[in-house]
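Risk mitigation, structural track. In case the binding assays with adenosine-5'-diphosphate fail to produce interpretable data, a predicted complex structure has been prepared as a fallback.
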Amino acid sequence: MKEHKDKKPTQKPSRPGTQIMSAILIFMVIVVLYSAISKPDEKIAQFTLSDVAKNITENKIDKIVVEGEKVNIDLKDGTKAEAKKEPESALSDTLVRYGVTPAQLNTTPIEIKNESGFGYWLLNILPFALPVILVVFFIWMLTRQVKGAGMQAFNFGQSKARITDPNDINNRVTFKDVAGAKEAKIELEEIVDFLKNPKKFLDIGAKIPKGVLLTGAPGTGKTLLARAVAGEAGVPFFHLSGSEFVEMFVGVGASRVRDLFKMAKKASPAIVFIDEIDAVGRVRGTGVGGGNDEREQTLNQILVEMDGFEPNEKVIVMAATNRSDVLDPALLRPGRFDRRVVLDLPDRADREAILAIHCIKKPLEKDVNIKVIAERTPGFSGADLSSLMNEAAILAARENHKMVSQFDLVRSIEKVMMGPERKSHILSKKEKEITAYHEGGHALVASCLEYADPVHKVSIVSRGNAGGYTLKLPLEDKRLHSKKEFLDDIAMSLGGYVAEEMIFGDITTGPSNDLQVATNLARAMVTRWGMSTSIGPIALESDGGKTMFGRGVNDNEYSERVSGLIDEEVSKIMNNAFEVARTVLTEKREVLDAIAKKLIEVETLEQDEYNEVIKSFGITPKLREETKNS
Ligand code: ADP
Ligand code: MG
Ligand code: ZN
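Fallback model:
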């Protein structure tokens, strides 16, 4: 798995001006301190003007330098002195007034210096300037902060898109990182081709698809594939999740959309990827749920932006969802997300390929056979498989192994499926017995019904929420399911319930989940798949089922009569299944006893052990193709 380090384009580095300003400030402070400290060190005698006059008459002075009001005196004996003169009058006039004769004055050279030295200015101005500078600096800091806050408020409407740089080789995802999904890849090649050489397409007058919608169950690799397209094409990838558009305030989402598209156009050719678009793209105008206005505005803005593309803008919008059934039809019309790529759950070969990708960086024991793991994981998504590999590695590491073994992988399958084993969850003797009969009931019904899947493992060790579990695996990957399979499946789900009632004459809360699963299945058979004879081929509910929000408001518009009929049909199916299960378990009571006894003894029965038990009573276990051949 790859980590993606995303960069936020909206963050700016701190301005260099700040550093220069503070450097200058510090420098000034140092200068002031220095001059303040160093002055008293110079041992210069302070003369009054009469002292100066006296020294001149005594001819002790070598030279006088006048600098503004300051009078620097060099005495003939090498010492220096300082005096202050009156600001307005000239020094010579003053001295004459102190009784120095003009002749004496002539013998003493007086130099008048222009007061313009840098140090002079600095020292004279600084005491006044410093507070001003400080105040200005303070105000500047304040405004900067206000501006920062303002920037944040401004950011609010800015898109929070994360950009993946095409030159970032380390984080680059390509089609090689995506296993299986062949059709999807072929479809997306076209997009890659366009992003790489748009001219070819434009020259021939072809309109470039603006939007690609990836749909598929969670974890089937939609996000991964979108990244891979960007990686293959080598273009910037703007990644944003649908929910990130929606904020408390109306209009923010729309402004974020605008911003996102502006950024993308600047960087074109580029890909804009809106993950989980159903968060904003649900059917509009249902008026259910809060924040609807905001969502609608956001969606409208997306539509406007997509319409606003010029054909040569070279920005392709990709979106992903696992609920394409709830999307607004306006999103799906030509010129918007007209390309649809469906990602299925991986089949056996694809699962093997996905496992192979995810074990690349993990050292594997020689006994590892990912083919077997792939066989045992029907219904696993890419994300499940990647998690399986990771769990196996964690298990191996925790037991201080240097390499991942097949056993680690097998154990991880169940962990990913049902959560960790809870060995500490100790059952009382009675509970253990009930659980054993319950699971035995499931397993035995499954083994005896023609269309049920073969039993793979039975256990009374609790895992996740389940007290015990019976794993069954289909003989092959199935895309289609038949009515007969469903009926047997429901009967198998009721096996536990029947067994409890039969053996103990009482029912625990254990089968509650079984009942839910079975009832939902029966209901779906009646209302969605037209599998009931008295209601016939009508779909009363859509695939999404009844939903409180978004669409689905109209789903329930069948009459009281039909509603009653549905309930009747569902309970008919359930009761039939109950009878089937009871017949099986009553007839095969001694097999059930044997399975339960064995379970109480060893707690977990693997497929072979379980098959041994039922074979000894003359029941032929169902076997998978692969196992049969070998
Ligand atoms: P989705 O967006 O469809 O819910 P993701 O793309 O986020 O699923 O997939 C989650 C993870 O599962 C990926 O990061 C990847 O590790 C793994 N994965 C899913 N599908 C595949 C695949 N076809 N090949 C390799 N890895 C996959
Ligand atoms: Mg995703
Ligand atoms: Zn059960």
